[in-house]
Structure to design on (293 residues):
């Protein structure tokens, strides 16, 4: 089966959350600019009242999306927000949708990279859904290099021919020469050196985490490699919460998502803003077109 030109598939997420409302608003906003196909039955749940039946619908939509991507019916997939807690109750064994798609396409979790792509900040994460303790304990050179290479690839797809990338330090002030920890000397500096060799790009680091995102926002860097989940997501969402997109790099398909959750307390009130979902659909469409050129 051939891919229908530019068709972007959308899973609505948990039907009790704001996903279905956002999808309706996004379709009205986008009109016929981007061809969409929507998965997920909304009649099984009331807004704001998650159920096992709703979680099963969200899980089934994810599984069906993989089939449609593998059959090349879809050029890309965009995922509405799901509840990890409710999904676990219906047998979904993955920490998040990022890890689900990695497994579905034969990738290990440490072979893909979760990114936050916004209009003012682009961040790649070395680790994603792990406790902070485990993220620090498992930090390694290989994963930093993988994240940097994936970030460079996405930045090039977005039109930056020679991207400038900063790699965060782990400790306050990037370790202050070893005074606050040795991870920078043992892990980050060797990874930055290897990234420079592999990419032939301007890779800077380890940079002090308390200033590097401001510097990137001001234009000094095109992207930042953050060493753990909240180190990267807090500044990304602070700057561009309504227009930042979650991108999974390293997959053989294009996968994007909005940067927020189900917001059960907001569902059904007509107040949810579709900006991040619209940005995700537009970016997925753009990346899918790039991947076929």
């Amino acid at each position: 089966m051939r891919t229908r030109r530019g068709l972007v598939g959308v899973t609505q997420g948990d039907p009790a959350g704001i996903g279905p409302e956002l999808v309706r608003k996004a379709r009205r906003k986008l009109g016929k600019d981007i061809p969409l196909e929507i998965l997920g039955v909304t009649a099984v749940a009331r807004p704001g009242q998650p159920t096992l039946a709703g979680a099963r619908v969200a899980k089934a939509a994810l599984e069906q999306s993989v089939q449609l991507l593998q059959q090349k019916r879809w050029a890309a997939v965009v995922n509405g927000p799901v509840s990890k807690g409710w999904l676990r109750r219906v047998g979904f064994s993955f920490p998040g949708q990022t890890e689900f798609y990695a497994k579905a396409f034969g990738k290990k979790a440490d072979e893909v990279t979760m990114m936050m792509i916004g209009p003012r900040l682009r961040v790649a994460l070395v680790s994603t859904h792990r406790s902070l303790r485990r993220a620090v304990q498992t930090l390694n050179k290989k994963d930093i290099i993988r994240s940097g290479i994936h970030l460079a690839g996405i930045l090039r797809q977005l039109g930056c021919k020679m991207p400038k990338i900063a790699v965060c330090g782990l400790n306050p002030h990037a370790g202050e020469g070893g005074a606050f920890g040795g991870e920078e000397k043992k892990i980050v500096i060797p990874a930055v050196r290897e990234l420079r060799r592999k990419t032939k790009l301007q890779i800077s680091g380890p940079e002090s985490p308390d200033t590097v995102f401001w510097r990137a926002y001001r234009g000094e860097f095109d992207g930042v490699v953050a060493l753990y989940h909240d180190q990267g997501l807090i500044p990304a969402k602070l700057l561009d919460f309504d227009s930042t997109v979650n991108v999974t790099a390293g997959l053989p398909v294009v996968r994007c998502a909005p940067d927020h959750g189900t917001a059960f307390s907001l569902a059904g009130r007509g107040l949810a803003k579709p900006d991040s979902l619209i940005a995700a659909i537009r970016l997925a469409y753009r990346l899918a077109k790039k991947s076929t050129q």
Observations:
- The first helix runs from residue 19 to 30.
